[in-house]
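Final paragraph of the annual report: two paired records, presented back to back.
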Amino acid sequence: MIQYAIVGAGGYAAVHIRGIAQAGAGLGCRLAAAAIRPQDRTDGQVERFEAQGVRLFADAVEMFDALAGKVDAVFIPTGIATHAPLACAAMERGHNVYVEKPPAGTVQEVDQILSAQRRSGAVCALGFQAIYSTSVNRIKDLLASGALGEVLRLRCRAFWPRPDSYYARNEWAGRLRCGDAWVLDGPSNNALSHQIANMLYWASPRPRTFAAPVRVRAELYHAHDIDSEDTAGIEIATAEGPTAYFLVSHCTAGEQTGPWIEIDCSGGTVGWDAAGATTITRADGRAETFPADDRSRLEALANFTDAVGAADPERVLCTMTMGRNFAVALNGAFESSVVTRAIDPQYVRRCGEGPESTLVIDGINDAITRCAAEGKLFSDIGCPWATATVPFNLRGYERFPQQFRGSE
């Protein structure tokens, strides 16, 4: 039986804990330990874990030290700023690790994780869960086979409103930094980061690979009283050829909908709906549809358990090396934007009252729809609150920041 430990028990850690409880018996794994800070513990939590035979610690590194050689791997579903230090500390003590998305705040921190993995030989998986899903890999195989010709362009759009309470849930939500560490929290590096990962995955014809970003043009904005972004338009040119467009906001009108990704190929198109079906249309008009799957988290757990059981990092489907290309693209977006720009309040209205109220940017839903359809950013279509930016060259990019200055 493979023994797992986890850092934390709330937030996304709770999702992993439920997944291990749900699928562990069938996969041959169990939760053996958790590190939960005393101030984060809830009533009855200690007793529940102890009744299940889960050993508790008050500090993550203390747990890594105490359980070296006694557990098989550690899950790190913690704040963005802690991914690199905790992953490195765990691997330096001989633990395999599963690091939640995004890989880290900066490319140099991802390089630190990769260096620790090389030194330790550990299995290191990255939690872009969709990369493990059947439907996403079915699209990957189709595109890599050349059945739809050359991949030309990928376009993502999403309307994901978030209330004020979303930004009050922890000390780093919506922030550029947490203490001295870069966080760059926002839809691009957190809630919708999966979609940048998906597009980079599909833009590469090679298995277990994200396309390499070579140039990024980005416009990053915030309507909320935060210093990072809540609204993003990003254009990513890749070494492999395809260009990816990412148009999203946490300040949209109506209910949460999307994300959707359209893939334009020389011999057809793919339309992917995260909550619905995928439709493939060939140039001759033939079409096929298959449903999305909702088992990606369990598939990720199964893949990680397999890799840990075999002590084989090559079995991991989403690796930290793949995550480096994501981090380069994300860092490049902030470099291109130079600052995160506050949207003039005259273009913003509040919906509702209290902590669950939301902000809506005038016309944002239509702007996202048009930009995604045409492959443009907000300034390209004349949004009155938008500011044009220029592309940032990512060849040889190794350290953030270079020209990013902070929040406007």
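The closing record of the year follows.
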Amino acid sequence: MEEITASEGLTWRVSRTCDGGACVMVARDGEFILFGNTTQPDGPKVSYTRAEVAAFAEGIRRGDFDDLF
């Protein structure tokens, strides 16, 4: 896992399989999980509650989104 520190002072995590291209980066900010793009580390972010991200991750594990990949 690679870590990136953007201007917000948060520690961003990126998958070990990110090859330096456009990858999703994530960080925790209190009760929220923020998502950004490695090509724009200081660009726009999307935030979700930890519960929302947990529900999404469970859906991934169940295969609910397999048709998107």
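Residues 2-68 form one domain. This concludes the annual technical report; the extension proposal builds directly on these records.
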